Structures are given as structure tokens and as C-alpha cells.
Amino acid sequence: MLKKDNLKFGILIGILAPILSLVIYYFVKFYPLFSVKDFFSFVSSNKNQVTAISVPCLVLNIALFTYYINTHRDRTAKGIFAITLLFAIISLLFKYLL
Asked: Which conformational region is residue 34 in: left (phi greater than 0), alpha (psi within -120 to 50 degrees), or beta?
């Protein structure tokens, strides 16, 4: 499964990795204190938390991107890179404009 070299597969990995990272971050940092609803309202009211949450998500995507580039699966890496850029731009817009 991870041997594919496909743009759609890269986009799927690029979307799933930040979600997985967000879930892990929630359980490590906030689980006993906040419910999921309270967690998202806390993040929306404290914009400095957007950076703290988006960085681990982006780091996981960068690690996956590096892996796929080094194994010469460039189409998959392009999908991961595109989603990483999109995720970073959305995070910045959320932090500074909303």
C-alpha cells in the first residue's frame, strides 16, 4: 500500500497525517482536561494555540514528504507537499484573519 506512486494517494496521506497528529496531540496534552468540543473552542479563542497544534501536523507531513522523495516516489510526494502547503496557509489565515 505504501509503495504506490500516485498523486491521489499522496493527497490522501497528506490529509490523514495531520488528522492523526491532531488526535495524538489532543490525547497527550488536553484529554483529561477538555472534551473535544471544549478543545476546539479553546483553540478558537486562543490563537497562539493554532501554532502549537499546526507545527506537529506539519512536521509529520514533512517527514512523510522526505520519505517519499528519498524513495523516488515523486507523484506521491507532490500530493503530500500540496496538502502541506494548503494546511500551512489555512493555519496562518485562521491565526491572523479569523
From this structure: beta
C-alpha cell at 19: 488528522
Per-residue DSSP letter, 71: T
Please check whether residue 43 lies inside any domain of the structure: yes
Separation of alpha carbons 72 and 68, rounded Å: 6
- Tell me the per-residue pLDDT of 36-85, one tens digit each, with 9 for 90 and over: 898 888 888 888 888 888 888 899 999 999 999 999 999 999 999 999 99
CA-nearest of 27, 56, 51, 54 to 39 is 27
Within 10 Å of residue 39's Cβ, how many Cβ atoms? 19
What's the domain count of the chain? Answer: 1
69 located within any domain: yes
Query: Grid coordinates standing for 60?
Result: 509529520
